[in-house]
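hiii so um. not sure if this is the right channel but i have a protein structure encoded as tokens and i wanna go backwards to a sequence. like what aa goes where. can anyone help
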């Protein structure tokens, strides 16, 4: 009986999201950590688009995330529109140890995203590699400042290496996408 009622109320969604930012900021590591809770120290740079699926359950709502991990290399610029097609949200990632990766979020990646995505959707800003404490070149306030400026839904600092704040980052994005779609959980 209970099961029947539950299944009546069960809602399912499929969302495509993209993860973008400069090469080596940790995009692939973040996705791998989220999808498998694994971290590879010798991960090879992505060569093309890597597509990873993950199901997230929130109360009576099931969300299937299709995560597109783009290569940062310039040569893929021309085929970007295909990667961005139909995406509901984005994770914009910079590396807290390299200041120019933060600058490129606004100057390059967000511009690229806006150019290709008609409906802006939800996007969050992530400062990754917080475990490299004595190499930090971007103070937290700078990330917060940029997030405000570009009107990101949220700002969060993560360590894909230690698995810190990864679940939180993805769930912030998923919640924002759901709320943009008028779904209350
Ligand atoms: P990308 O997909 O954005 O290009 P990768 O980046 O996920 O391939 O990561 C690039 C390098 O940064 C990798 O190192 C990876 O191990 C490292 N890295 C990713 N996230 C973190 C993190 O949170 N902390 C630390 N310390 N390193 C991280 P290599 O040496 O394999 O190139
Ligand atoms: Mg990669």
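sure thing!! here u go:
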């Amino acid at each position: 009986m209970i099961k029947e009622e539950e299944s009546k109320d069960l809602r399912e969604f499929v969302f495509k999201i993209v993860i973008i930012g400069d090469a080596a900021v940790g995009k692939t590591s973040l996705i791998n950590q989220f999808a498998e809770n694994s971290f590879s120290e010798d991960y090879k740079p992505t060569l093309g688009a890597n597509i990873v699926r993950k199901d997230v359950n929130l109360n009576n709502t099931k969300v299937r995330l299709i995560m597109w991990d783009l290569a940062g290399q310039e040569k893929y610029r021309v085929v970007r529109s295909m990667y961005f097609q139909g995406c509901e949200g984005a994770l914009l990632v910079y590396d807290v140890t390299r200041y120019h990766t933060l600058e490129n979020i606004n100057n390059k990646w967000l511009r690229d995203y806006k150019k290709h995505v008609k409906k802006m959707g939800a996007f969050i800003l992530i400062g990754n590699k917080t475990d490299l404490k004595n190499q930090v070149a971007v103070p937290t306030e700078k990330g917060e400042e940029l997030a405000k400026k570009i009107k990101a839904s949220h700002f969060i600092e993560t360590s894909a290496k230690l698995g810190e704040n990864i679940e939180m980052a993805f769930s912030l994005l998923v919640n924002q996408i759901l709320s943009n779609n008028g779904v209350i959980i």
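oh and Residues 27-28, 45-46, 69 surround magnesium ion (ligand 2) (CB under 6 Å).
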